[in-house]
Design a protein that fits this description.
Number of strands: 7
Number of domains: 1
Number of helices: 10
CATH topology: Rossmann fold
CATH class: Alpha Beta
Structural class: alpha/beta
Radius of gyration: 18 Å
Length: 274
Amino acid sequence: MQYDPIKRKLGLFFNATPAFRKLFYRLLDLLLLRSWHIRRALKKWEQGRQGVQHVLDAGSGFGQYDYYIGKRHRDWHIKGVDVKEEQIADCNNFFQKIGLKNVRFAEADLTRFSEPETYDLVLCVDVMEHIEEDEKVLGNYYKSLKKGGMLLISTPSDQGGSDVHHHDHNEESGEHSFIDEHVRDGYGIDEISEKMKRAGFSRTEVYYQYGPSGKLAWKLSMKFPVIMLNTSYFFFVILPFYYLITFPFSLILNYADVKRKHKTGTGLVAKAWK
């Protein structure tokens, strides 16, 4: 299943005006369960923070989290990095248009990233599942953090992830991955905790997201629409009517997932402190 072409199509539509882009961010915040968990974790981290903070968004994509943090804390310095040059140019252009001067974007390969002891927070959302050399990248995050800084990761778990299967597994079983760009099925809690500790982090906290309610919400808000859009771009016309029906249910399910602790789930939130 090709996910990036859909994202590019949506990006073109919502880039028509800055107001559309802001609406896009708002819709992502509401529909994407991972955004609920990340914003909750960010608010908890913000408590007690004093003075100017330096934040790295490692794999910034559309820049939704940079917008969220930058608007809330205009004296903080936020840097988003991504491997895709066109994504960086797009984000810089948008943030310049809206005058959010405390946020900037740069192209970077996370396997080679090096800005020692620069950041108070490194944010990494839906990135680690795309990187083969994950321990090298975790080491780069550790080096880039100041003493006492925190790494915050959201990634699929090994309990189903995003219906993702490794490429070799696909060929052997005949199964097809929902998202082809992933290089691993997901992480186990112990696995990612140990990898972060080997990278040098002194303390870790990892917990499940996307429990039963969250998994259903993800199917309603993301999986089924993407499947439809991969079938035919005609479904772009139908999509607003689809969300008109499913949107309230998705919100309720997302809220339920954030408020509960899960014994298992298809996603993980991982925190680590230097």
